[in-house]
Automatic annotation (TrEMBL):
Family: Belongs to the Nth/MutY family.
PANTHER family named in the record: ADENINE DNA GLYCOSYLASE
Alphabetical list of NCBIfam families matching this protein: mutY (TIGR01084)
Species name: Winogradskyella litorisediminis
Residue intervals of the HhH-GPD domain: 35-186
Known role: Adenine glycosylase active on G-A mispairs. MutY also corrects error-prone DNA synthesis past GO lesions which are due to the oxidatively damaged form of guanine: 7,8-dihydro-8-oxoguanine (8-oxo-dGTP).
Protein name: Adenine DNA glycosylase
Pfam families associated with the record: HHH, HhH-GPD, NUDIX_4
InterPro entries: A/G_AdeGlyc_MutY, DNA_glycosylase, HhH-GPD_domain, HhH_base_excis_C, HhH_motif, MIG/MutY, MutY_C, NUDIX_hydrolase-like_dom_sf
Enzyme's top EC category: hydrolase
Catalysed reaction equations from the record: Hydrolyzes free adenine bases from 7,8-dihydro-8-oxoguanine:adenine mismatched double-stranded DNA, leaving an apurinic site
SMART domains, alphabetized: ENDO3c
Alphabetic keyword roster: 4Fe-4S, DNA damage, DNA repair, Glycosidase, Hydrolase, Iron, Iron-sulfur, Metal-binding
Cofactor: [4Fe-4S] cluster
């Protein structure tokens, strides 16, 4: 029995019951793939179900405003995915009359769609023979064949794609692609894989040579940058506060936040008081303040660690262009801000 048959037979017996596996609707498959990029199924499933409920067709998604899309996406992170999702929905609805591209060659041209996502959509929705290679696939192939080429190197990316293309079952490409990804997610897991009951065990190079923990190989990531964020949570006499929109490109573009002061280090209360005197945001205002969290809340992103403090600014007067506390829940915000809003007791 060859590799492909073993994988497909395993999948038939062990696959999870997931809604996007019950359809060939390219819109729904595309939604699931974008949501599941860098997101585990357990976390992504509720988002997928909500998106399909709120935006049942690509036209519904295209007709929505970006703020609503970002709000629905809140908590998933990597918000550029949501912005690209909305942009591409508009393109498909307006330029292609709602007809989703049906070949890998055309799908990969869509904004926010790379090789993996295009291969997944082309095979799952249109049965095109094109191999998917995600983190699960890299892991299965590198361990089974004993390949130590770094998976995030140019050579590795090309080599693993070629190998997956060679192995794919040409009669049932969708099933093979689903099977090898599911095998990596459930059987050949990153840590503590089920090697003892693995159907590939006999010919698995990593198992036979005791290199399971060493494969796959990945080049070291870019050095993590530490940043220090001070959010100013204003509370005025009318039970209102201030929020601002992040319009510059970068993390959390087009999301809302409390006014932000970035410092070169974590500030003590005395340092913040001195710092505030030179701040344009606070200059000229009469206020009392206190620190919500003495220890920094550290929010980890792929290349940045955000060391965050929330400063509660109590004003005697009224704020201009302010929003009521109850309105806060309507704004799409980063998970870091959303968690604070849910915990802090805004009193009307």
């Amino acid at each position: 029995m060859n590799f492909s048959k073993i994988i497909i037979n395993w999948y038939s017996a062990h696959k999870r019951d997931l809604p996007w596996r019950k359809t060939q609707n390219p819109y729904h498959i595309w939604l699931s793939e974008i949501i599941l990029q860098q997101t585990q199924v357990k976390q992504g499933l509720p988002y997928y179900l909500k998106f399909v409920e709120v935006f049942p067709t690509v036209f519904d998604l295209a007709d929505s405003d970006e703020q609503k899309v970002l709000k629905l996406w809140q908590g998933l992170g990597y918000y550029s995915r949501a912005r690209n999702l909305h942009f591409t929905a508009k393109y498909i609805a307006e330029e292609l009359n709602g007809n989703f591209p049906n070949t890998y060659k055309d799908i990969v041209k869509l904004k926010g769609v790379g090789d993996y996502t295009a291969s997944a959509i082309a095979s799952f929705a249109f049965s095109e023979v094109t191999a998917v290679v995600d983190g699960n696939v890299y892991r299965v192939l590198s361990r089974y064949f004993g390949i130590d080429t770094p998976i995030n190197s140019t050579q590795g990316i090309k080599g693993f794609k070629a190998l997956a293309t060679e192995l794919i079952d040409k009669k049932q490409p969708a099933k093979f692609n689903q099977a090898i990804m599911e095998f990596g997610a459930q059987q050949c897991k990153p840590k503590n894989p089920y090697c003892i009951i693995c159907p590939l065990q006999e010919k698995c190079v990593a198992f036979q040579t005791n290199k399971i923990e060493n494969l796959p190989v990945k080049l070291k990531k870019t050095k993590v940058r530490n940043r220090f964020f001070n959010y100013l949570v204003f509370l005025d006499a009318n039970h209102k506060t201030l929020v601002e929109k992040r319009t510059k490109k970068g993390i959390w573009q087009n999301l809302y936040q409390f006014p932000l002061i970035e410092s070169e280090k974590s500030l003590s209360i005395d340092e913040f008081e001195t710092f505030s005197k030179s701040s344009e945001i606070l200059n000229g205002k009469t206020f009392d303040f206190n620190l919500y969290n003495e220890a920094d809340i550290i929010h980890k992103l792929s290349h940045q660690h955000l060391h965050t403090k929330f400063w509660i600014i109590q004003l005697e007067g009224e704020l201009e262009n302010a929003v009521s506390y109850s309105e806060l829940k309507e704004f799409p915000v980063p998970a870091l801000i959303g968690e604070f809003i849910s915990k802090f007791k805004f009193k009307n």
